[in-house]
Amino acid sequence: MPFSERASRLKGSLIREILAAAQRPEVMSFAGGLPAEAMLPVVDWTTMPVSMGQYGMSEGEPALREALAAEARALGVPCEASQVLVVSGSQQALDLAAKLYIDKGTQVMLEAPTYLAALQVFQFFGADCIVVPLEADGPDLDALRSQLQTHRPAFIYLIPTFQNPSGVCYSEAKREAVAALLDEFGVTLIEDEPYRELAFDGGTSRPIVSRLQRSSWIYTGTVSKTLLPGLRVGYLIASPDLFPHLLRLKQAADLHTNRVGQWQALQWLGTDRLKQHLEALRSYYRVRRDAFQAALQTHFFDLADWHVPEGGLFFWLTLKQPLDTRTLLDAALAVDVAFMPGEPFFPDPDAHKGHLRLNFSHVDPALLDEGLRRLADVVRSGQSL
Amino acid sequence: MPFSERASRLKGSLIREILAAAQRPEVMSFAGGLPAEAMLPVVDWTTMPVSMGQYGMSEGEPALREALAAEARALGVPCEASQVLVVSGSQQALDLAAKLYIDKGTQVMLEAPTYLAALQVFQFFGADCIVVPLEADGPDLDALRSQLQTHRPAFIYLIPTFQNPSGVCYSEAKREAVAALLDEFGVTLIEDEPYRELAFDGGTSRPIVSRLQRSSWIYTGTVSKTLLPGLRVGYLIASPDLFPHLLRLKQAADLHTNRVGQWQALQWLGTDRLKQHLEALRSYYRVRRDAFQAALQTHFFDLADWHVPEGGLFFWLTLKQPLDTRTLLDAALAVDVAFMPGEPFFPDPDAHKGHLRLNFSHVDPALLDEGLRRLADVVRSGQSL
Predict the structure, then answer these.
(1) Closest CA to A192 of A227, A218, A226, A165
(2) Which GO terms describe its molecular function (chains A, B) (predicted)?
């Protein structure tokens, strides 16, 4: 068929295939990044103006852009509302960035591991992925400098706060060092922060974009992890040199983001009830995280190593005896357990076997122990083959 | 800056720039394709389940896909719900198609004139646009055959029912002839139908995709012109060979379409109250269309030729003395009138001077006469320069 050259790189999303397989109600799923159903806030639509049904501006609702800019400034990001583009979930920010930057063979720099769906869209557009290994407190700085000395990436894509999938949160020192390196080499930063508000053990450090002196940047976030993913309301904030290009790409992609979701998001942003909701959410997830850690210690102490995540939605396990965890999926689903294999989070999956990403926010704690026991059995069986 | 090669073709959307310039309340705008504010239905959200706030499936809500498939079958389009992909407004269908088909230099076939934002996204991805002139009842069939004999387009993009911008509705005979030609040459059809329900003078003919025997196809529609554009809910229905590719592209673009808009659309689809709303909408627009025609006859009889559109939202004027209507924009805005120049609706704007697209659904009829009088004066002044 006469498809485009890039269509030959069009891969399915393993995570969405697993989620589809895990639709059966009896399946205990550690696979997705879904908020807990019980913590979805009940929202009120009765005061929404009829005019929200009309076409809107590609930039997004003016009041929402103002509110998002104010929140970002409170985090130290120097910006105005004119730099805020409301997008249809933060995945769209990655799609727009890929269109703006990536031709076949364009080098982009990524953490290893990194967010699966970012990898998917960057590779689809033809990116040559240069990676920097993650350590417990952020990227390996020597590796980062070395890669920057030998490559000229179009951008570097980082998730510094409770990274997906690793759970890593960059230290203050590494944030400073990364910003200085990017300024030194003049590399554009795309900083993705869906999990900043989900901090269980204290505060978080300022975004890296707030520390840049010279480099161009795109900062992206979403209401999906704090409010309602079903609204599909995310945003990006860009340095002024990039904004006009991203706006045009947004126009061509879907004209503008749905206004009913934008209106609903605006009802919450900056309010006391959102603060209270976030406090409740953190408490709820903290309890689940701790219960998950306890169950992991029972069932995986001899099988894997891991850090306890201080935020976000995931544990990242490293098996003591590496094996291709993709080969465990069918066996896990056969005993009604879903998980996310670690390999697809690397541009070169076959070189990084033996990780599992486990979501702790979604499974009912009453089923947790049984679910992890079954998963541990599946890993043991896989290792003895 | 190290942008992609395609970014060099990233143009702004003239229509959205005009809409921005026309934000001043005193401006009478004939520019956009906005539904009349007064006809936006009041919708009820009180029974929406909280679960609509959770992540959803990339394909769209199952019940909505079933309802859309049933509607399409009623139009003669042979399809199942499994072929329906809910998208974030039908503009997104064009973005997905462009990603799937278009590399730099890929030939695509279009009507001349054609929908501005389709042209924008196809050209952005690097399309080489092959055009077929439109006549009053559809494409020039000799030209279509001749183009098909000498080119191998990745697809042909058509808007057969109340075309934007020309208002043309293909005759039954031309629909049959186009389907036969596409089957003969094995060319994929993308059929875009946002205006089908806005028929003021009787019924409409079956979609062309329903007449294809062999060619692959994508049929796309939206609730934006019938219900609420602010929901950003559109859909595409694809032949089974294309669907899996489009689904993966949708996943990578924005995960899924917002669920609150999908839920609201489902409350209306196939119901009696939608039938009543559409009947009211048609009556309302018919009155506006007729008033517009009367005012045009008063002010433009010596300046332009046009057909009275039997549906859709636009009059398409051809000036008796062609001039570049883009040069009239500033003068029109200076007297608080906005319109859409015709040139950008052609891949080669400079070769098609002297058309205006005028929307008749949005301006208050009380202001219509004054607005068109001012616009006629602007055209006269432009011609005498």
Answers:
(1) A218
(2) transaminase activity
- Please answer yes or no on whether B254 and A261 come within 8 Å at the CB atom: no
Chain B residues close to A34, C-beta within 8 Å? 54-55
pLDDT band at A36 (very low <50, low <70, confident <90, very high): confident
CA distance A313 to A288: 10
Please state the separation of Cα B198 from the chain's center in Å.
12
Q: Which two tokens stand for residue A250?
A: 């947004």
Amino acid making up residue A64: L
Q: Minimal Cα–Cα distance from B253 to chain A, Å?
A: 6
- SS3 call for A22: coil
Chain B residues near residue A255 by CB distance under 8 angstroms: 89, 91, 117, 232
Q: State how far the Cα of A91 lies from the Cα of A224, in Å rounded to an integer.
A: 11
User: Three-state SS for B150?
Assistant: helix
* 3-state class (DSSP) for residue A158: strand
8 Å CB contact of B7 and A99: yes
pTM, two decimals, is: 0.96
- CA angle at B235 for the pair B45 and A32, rounded to the nearest 5°: 70
CA dist A34 and A20 (Å) reads 13
Here the tokens at position A125 are 């557009």
Residue A75: DSSP 8-state = T
- d(Cα A283, Cα A115) in Å, to the nearest integer? 25
Q: Count how many Cα atoms sit within 13 Å of the Cα of residue B259 in the half-sphere of its side chain.
A: 20
3-class DSSP assignment, residue B111? strand
How do strand B340-341 and strand B337-338 relate by DSSP bridges? Answer: unpaired
Reduce the DSSP state of residue A258 to 3 states and report it.
coil
Contact B92 A253 (CB under 8 A): yes
Run of H or E residues at B69: helix B62-74
**In chain A, which residues have their Cβ closer than 8 Å to the Cβ of B7?**
99-101, 245
B1: pLDDT confidence band, cut at 50, 70 and 90? low
Contact status, residue A196 vs residue A204, Cβ threshold 8 Å: yes
Note whether A4 contacts B88, CB cutoff 8 Å.
Answer: no
- CB spacing of B20 vs A48 below 8 angstroms: no
Closest CA to A226 of A172, A180, A185, A285: A285
ipTM of the complex: 0.96
Chain A residues lying within 8 Å of B118, measured CB to CB: none
| pLDDT at A1 (0 to 100) | 57
Quote the distance between the C-alpha of residue B357 and its chain's center.
13
Amino acid at B70: A
Helices A259-268 and A62-74: crossing angle, nearest 10°? 40
Place of tokens 């009138």: B337
Rounded distance, CA A300 to CA A316, Å? 12
